[in-house]
């Protein structure tokens, strides 16, 4: 094991003023379009939203400065707390199983081979179906006499009111998004696995490491950057997802699937309380940035940035 | 054994697609005869769907390519080059990921309006043309590039931009292809923004077109699933086409190492 | 550049996207001296296949007749109509003419987005319908697609249960009684099924019950919520007692009615045309039928109603042309054609005499019209409807007692009003 020398992942360094200047020029050049883009289409709108979070703004006339009122209102708004809780359960429930599952599938699937290629392609099919239309199919699947209950019946369980039982609807949503996103996670992890040098496996095999040990002691540490990426994307994605709830359950039954982004959406475009919606967005942003930093710290190994 | 399990997983994942096919094959008003082709014909009958297809292709290919270009360049720069404002840009990217699209929608709309881009392709393309997700993805992959190759090129006196174009890009191919595919899919599925920006049906992409099948009480289930089935075809074809290059990316990395 | 000016520049930049849309127009556009309408009109409306068939030829006819006018219609799915309108208003680029739900008019009007309707124009319509488009004494639209609620029922299910299909229930007590007899032992088949989780229908359904019990949802001046009263609580209790909240169908209660699992639903005129498209076996008068909205024994008759309206943006540069076009769309001969071909009723004065595809529907509507109730008219309608839906769903799912749900509703509205 220790004989394997890993020399990937360190930033290429070449000392000297000239090199620094060259990197500065090239880096600036390569990053400039992105910098302009994010400045205009994200920083500017973000600043507006941050400003609006301290105002009452009903999408007409001038925003009216109200200080911290919106943030105070959040603390006593049962709708906010309900949706925060729903979001938490939804995120934990969809991120953890789908990443574990994706990893379990990606490792064998990353090996070359015609069958694996075809399977990879087939796995992506749910991800490429338009959500507007797939949600219609899931409503059929979850209907009383629908396929989901038929499957349960075969397994010996009674029928379930998937979308209309307030204890189950959120999990019905989780199943749908896991189905939808699994293929994406698999394909990103596969790309990460394929980027790993095969020599480390050969070395590990020579060392006599079994496949399970090789997975935990070699694959997993080497894959951590990709894993970090998938984790951050999955957490951020599910904490901001409102389209699935919007399309499948409309937040119901009785608020059971009213995730925070959906509640924000209702406030912004339903109730025209853009100030309050912006305040919620700022809180969500803060939470997500902190969560992302924690994940960075947690998953960053030795020398990378 | 693993193969059997994998096939089983894939089969389960394709079950809903099967359900979709069954629903899309039902005739209008219920019944047993197989009507998939009649339904497809009905969908295309108005002559609008080919237009939606064209627009979806323009948006998905356009944004996909722009994203690969710009997110690829900046993601690489963030990972491997030292330059002024690097930290700020990275914070901006992570912050963008974490910012709710809901609250920036109105300000972005106002900016697009100010630019005179309502009802144009650029109004639909430019605000989505670089994804924070993409920059982040490429950065994570670029961090893992073998440093020896870059060093060797530097010693040879190659410029940094050239190193990026000739050495990093081929090595980053799996990541860039993944990014292209994901951005393509995101745009293929994007309903809300084009709906807000495009008032002219000649500019509508597929999701906006399909959403016209909504009715007062829900939607036309039969035509909606038919549309879903048909619109899934181009991305599926694209994906199988790109498969070849995934494998190429793998062997390339292996040989070079 | 010093620090302060840099900071103020930043603040200005941050505000630019918000403030750009502000600032009204200084001079009101005048009607052209020759009275000839001209200019390009953008017209936004939600898609309904039936109305399309009438609207599109009408637009062609109009532009042939008035050659200096161009009309650009845009069909928007009903679920996204409000979002698109709001974004356009906020961005400063609303359409000239648009079709909106009457219940959203007070909200838009309060925010100064709408041009008041021409007096001469709104006078030709049913007064209660026009009233529902009025805010602080001014009408802001002319009514189109007007409907009152009916009790829809399945004749086949009635016959199966030994009930006379020609004698539908006339009181809510009877509805409850019939529902018991129509409900199967496993609860999979029910009598009346409410349309749950849908704000607009929740308001109409609960309106009938609350008012029928002698209460109100909001106080008459709209300043506070009044569900936590005997009438409100009783209404919620009755609401929870009917149907099975756990039944699920991709098209909600409409789908359950089409499949026969629900024997009764409350719905509007549009369902007459819609139901047969869900299942071709659904034949009006044979498989399903309609009856007037029930009332409580000894309670007042309450028939929930709604109307859509044509409105003109305050910002429109050619309001004269806009109203001219609306006037054209709303002519009596068009109204007759619309009702016959699209099943959509334009409430022109004397609409009771128009001929419908199904005369029974028009007769019932005409008889119920004096009891039409458009529900609370408030600028925070969306918030009220959402809170009421939360309350109704919570009791229907047994998550809250009617008392608790009523109190929570009143509390939520205290924050909103």
Automatic annotation (TrEMBL), chain A:
Major localisation: membrane
Family statement: Belongs to the binding-protein-dependent transport system permease family.
CDD domains xrefs: TM_PBP2
Keywords linked to the UniProt accession: Cell membrane, Membrane, Transmembrane, Transmembrane helix, Transport
Bilayer topology annotation: Multi-pass membrane protein
GO BP field: transmembrane transport
The protein's name: Sugar ABC transporter permease
Localization (cell): Cell membrane
The organism's taxonomic lineage, starting at the top: Bacteria, Bacillati, Actinomycetota, Actinomycetes, Streptosporangiales
A Pfam family per the record: BPD_transp_1
PROSITE patterns, per database record: ABC_TM1
ABC transmembrane type-1 domain mapped to chain residues: 84-295
Cellular component GO terms, alphabetical: plasma membrane
Gene3D superfamilies hit by this protein: MetI-like
Segments crossing the lipid bilayer: 29-54, 88-110, 122-142, 168-189, 227-254, 274-294
Automatic annotation (TrEMBL), chain B:
Subcellular location, record wording: Cell membrane
Xref: Pfam families: BPD_transp_1
Domain ABC transmembrane type-1, chain residue ranges per copy: 53-242
CDD domains registered for this protein in UniProt: TM_PBP2
An example Gene Ontology CC term for this record: plasma membrane
Extent of the signal sequence: 1-21
Membrane topology: Multi-pass membrane protein
Record field: transmembrane: 57-79, 88-112, 124-142, 163-185, 221-242
Record family assignment: Belongs to the binding-protein-dependent transport system permease family.
The name this protein goes by in its record: Carbohydrate ABC transporter permease
Native organism: Nonomuraea longispora
Organism placement in taxonomy: Bacteria, Bacillati, Actinomycetota, Actinomycetes, Streptosporangiales
UniProtKB/TrEMBL annotation, chain C:
Keywords for this protein: Signal, Transport
UniProt record, GO biological process: maltodextrin transmembrane transport; maltose transport
Keyword Transport: yes
Gene3D superfamilies the UniProt entry points to: Periplasmic binding protein-like II
Key word Signal present: yes
Signal peptide range: 1-20
One GO term describing the cellular component: ATP-binding cassette (ABC) transporter complex, substrate-binding subunit-containing
One of the record's GO molecular function terms: maltose binding
UniProt xrefs under SUPFAM superfamilies: Periplasmic binding protein-like II (SSF53850)
Listed PROSITE patterns: PROKAR_LIPOPROTEIN (PS51257), TAT (PS51318)
Sequence similarity: Belongs to the bacterial solute-binding protein 1 family.
PANTHER family, per database record: MALTOSE-BINDING PERIPLASMIC PROTEIN, MALTOSE_MALTODEXTRIN-BINDING PERIPLASMIC PROTEIN
Protein name as annotated: ABC transporter substrate-binding protein
């Amino acid at each position: 094991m220790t004989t394997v020398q890993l020399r990937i992942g360190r930033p290429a360094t070449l000392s000297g003023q000239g090199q620094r200047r060259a990197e500065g020029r090239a880096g600036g050049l390569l990053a400039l379009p992105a910098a302009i883009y994010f400045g205009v289409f994200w920083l500017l709108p973000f600043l507006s939203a941050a400003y609006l979070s301290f105002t009452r703004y009903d999408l007409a006339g001038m925003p009216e400065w109200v200080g911290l009122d919106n943030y105070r209102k959040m603390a006593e708004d049962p709708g906010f707390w309900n949706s925060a809780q729903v979001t938490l359960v939804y995120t934990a429930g969809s991120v953890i199983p789908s990443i574990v599952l994706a990893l379990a599938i990606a490792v064998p699937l990353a090996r070359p081979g015609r069958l694996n290629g075809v399977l990879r392609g087939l796995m992506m099919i749910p991800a490429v179906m338009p959500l507007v239309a797939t949600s219609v199919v899931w409503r059929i699947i979850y209907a009383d006499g629908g396929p989901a209950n038929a499957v349960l019946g075969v397994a010996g369980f009674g029928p379930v009111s998937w979308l209309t039982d307030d204890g189950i609807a959120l999990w019905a949503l989780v199943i749908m998004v896991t189905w939808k996103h699994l293929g994406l996670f698999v394909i990103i992890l596969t790309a990460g696995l394929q980027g790993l040098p095969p020599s480390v496996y050969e070395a590990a095999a020579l060392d006599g490491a079994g496949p399970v040990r090789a997975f935990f002691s070699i694959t997993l540490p080497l894959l951590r950057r990709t894993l970090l990426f998938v984790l951050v994307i999955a957490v951020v994605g599910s904490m901001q997802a409102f389209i699935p709830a919007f399309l499948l359950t409309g937040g119901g039954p009785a608020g059971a699937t009213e995730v925070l982004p959906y509640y924000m959406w209702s406030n912004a475009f339903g109730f025209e309380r853009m100030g309050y919606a912006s305040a919620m967005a700022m809180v969500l942003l803060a939470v997500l940035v902190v969560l992302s930093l924690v994940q960075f710290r947690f998953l960053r190994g030795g020398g990378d940035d | 054994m693993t193969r059997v399990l994998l096939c089983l997983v894939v089969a389960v994942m394709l079950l809903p697609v099967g359900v979709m096919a069954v629903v899309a094959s039902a005739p209008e008003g219920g019944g047993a005869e197989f009507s998939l082709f009649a339904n497809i014909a009905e969908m295309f009958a108005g002559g609008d769907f080919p237009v939606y297809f064209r627009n979806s292709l323009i948006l998905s290919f356009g944004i996909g390519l722009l994203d690969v270009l710009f997110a690829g360049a900046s993601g690489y720069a963030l990972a491997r080059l030292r330059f002024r404002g690097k930290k700020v840009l990275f914070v901006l990217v992570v912050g963008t990921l974490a910012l709710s699209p809901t609250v920036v929608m109105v300000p972005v709309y106002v900016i697009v309006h100010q630019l005179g881009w309502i009802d144009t392709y650029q109004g639909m393309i430019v605000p989505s043309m670089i994804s924070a997700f993409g920059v982040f993805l490429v950065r994570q992959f670029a961090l893992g590039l073998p440093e020896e190759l870059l060093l060797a090129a530097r010693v040879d006196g190659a410029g940094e931009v050239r190193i990026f174009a000739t050495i990093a890009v081929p090595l980053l191919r799996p990541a860039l292809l993944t990014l292209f595919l994901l951005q393509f899919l995101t745009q293929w599925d994007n309903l809300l923004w084009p709906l807000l920006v495009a008032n002219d049906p000649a500019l509508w992409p597929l999701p906006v077109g399909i959403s016209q099948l909504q009715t007062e009480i829900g939607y036309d289930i039969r035509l909606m699933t038919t549309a879903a089935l048909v619109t899934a075809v181009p991305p599926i074809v694209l994906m199988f086409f790109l498969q070849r290059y995934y494998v190429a990316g793998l062997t390339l990395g292996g040989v070079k190492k | 550049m010093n620090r302060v000016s840099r900071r103020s520049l930043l603040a200005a930049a941050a505000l630019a996207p918000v403030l750009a849309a502000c600032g009204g127009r200084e001079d009101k556009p005048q009607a052209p001296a020759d009275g000839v309408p001209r200019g390009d009109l953008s017209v936004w409306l939600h898609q309904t296949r039936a109305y399309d068939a009438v609207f599109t030829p009408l637009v062609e006819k109009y532009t042939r007749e008035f050659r200096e006018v161009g009309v650009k219609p845009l069909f928007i799915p009903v679920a996204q109509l409000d979002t698109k309108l709001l974004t356009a208003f906020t961005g400063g680029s609303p359409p000239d003419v648009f079709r909106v739900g009457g219940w959203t008019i007070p909200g838009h009007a309060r925010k100064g987005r709408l041009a008041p309707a021409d007096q001469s124009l709104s006078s030709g319509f049913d007064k209660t319908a026009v009233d529902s488009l009025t805010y602080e004494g001014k009408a802001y639209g002319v009514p189109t697609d007007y409907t009152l609620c009916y009790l829809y029922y399945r004749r086949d299910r009635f016959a199966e249960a030994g009930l006379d299909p020609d004698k539908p229930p006339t009181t809510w007590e009877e509805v409850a009684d019939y529902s018991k007899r129509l409900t199967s032992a496993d609860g999979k088949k029910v009598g009346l099924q409410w349309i749950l989780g849908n704000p607009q229908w929740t308001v109409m359904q609960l309106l009938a019950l609350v008012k029928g019990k002698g209460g109100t949802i909001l106080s008459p001046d709209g300043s506070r919520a009044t569900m936590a009263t005997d009438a409100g609580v009783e209404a919620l209790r009755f609401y929870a007692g009917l149907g099975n909240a756990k039944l699920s169908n991709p098209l909600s209660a409409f789908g359950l009615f089409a499949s026969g699992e629900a024997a009764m639903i409350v719905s509007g005129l549009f369902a007459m045309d819609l139901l047969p498209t869900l299942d071709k076996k659904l034949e009006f008068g044979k498989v399903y039928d309609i009856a007037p909205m029930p009332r409580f024994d000894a309670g007042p008759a309450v028939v929930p109603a709604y109307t859509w309206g044509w409105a003109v943006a305050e910002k429109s540069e050619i309001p004269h042309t806009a109203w001219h076009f609306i006037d054209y769309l709303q002519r009596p001969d068009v109204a007759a054609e619309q009702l016959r071909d699209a099943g959509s009723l334009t409430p022109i004065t004397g609409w009771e005499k128009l001929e419908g595809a199904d005369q029974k529907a028009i007769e019932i509507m005409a008889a119920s019209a004096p009891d039409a109730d458009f529900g609370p008219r408030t600028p925070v309608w969306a918030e009220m409807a959402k809170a009421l839906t939360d309350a109704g769903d919570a009791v229907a799912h047994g998550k809250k007692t009617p008392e608790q749900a009523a109190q929570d509703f009143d509390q939520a509205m205290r924050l909103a009003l």
